[in-house]
């Protein structure tokens, strides 16, 4: 019984989301946000795949609480593959304005990951595994003034990714040491639009993997199709009775042509197991026949085809 309870407790603590053990302290001076009270953690307990932070532990400095934390820093959690959610919950870090994640497994970003970070001014995601910054990534964080993506593996940045952010208040955007770009922006050193142009130009196109000249795979034979004999030069004997084209008012030639077409279509119809693109052939023939029928003012009705 005791064991069962223990197992249950273990199960419950695993199935919840993230738990941070915080080292509470004042951060180094991070420029824009200065030196702020922070929670630094390197060993979050993980929920299986639940990215919600539900519990924090650690000893806040006398006179401070977790509510005073403005910066959360996660460093070296290699198995952490998402941005923790619900961190600014009133019971956790309601005054959060800065997030720093580095040396984690963060690789994929999405447009909803910053949903809970609407007051964020400062975001550093340098030294992770990020490969793409999607268009809507900053849709909820329009007050960001410092953005650092340096030293990731980014090869695509959405064309409008930076659009939601007021660039006049931006103090830094870093995309140094990435796959598609190695540049940063600060108002002192450059023009925002020329930086944006480079970012859009360099990181818009998906690089196609070059096809190796020597392959370890066996050479693929071109697919073999039966020879294109579906238009017989000598149409197989007709299965329909020879037409009586003598007294039709559309003319004997047209009557015969129509008969030949009907034969041809029947030949094709019988070969549906042979021709892989049979539907295309039949469709084409059907269209052709319809057009001919129209031309003949519907005086001569073709039989043997479903519409
Ligand atoms: C560049 O980024 C890679 C990770 O993508 C990192 O390992 C390397 O240390 C970075 N180089 C510098 C100079 O920061």
UniProtKB/TrEMBL annotation:
<keyword id="KW-0732">Signal</keyword>
<dbReference type="InterPro" id="IPR032675">
    <property type="entry name" value="LRR_dom_sf"/>
</dbReference>
<protein>
    <submittedName>
        <fullName>Uncharacterized protein</fullName>
    </submittedName>
</protein>
<feature type="signal peptide">
    <location>
        <begin position="1"/>
        <end position="17"/>
    </location>
</feature>
<dbReference type="InterPro" id="IPR001611">
    <property type="entry name" value="Leu-rich_rpt"/>
</dbReference>
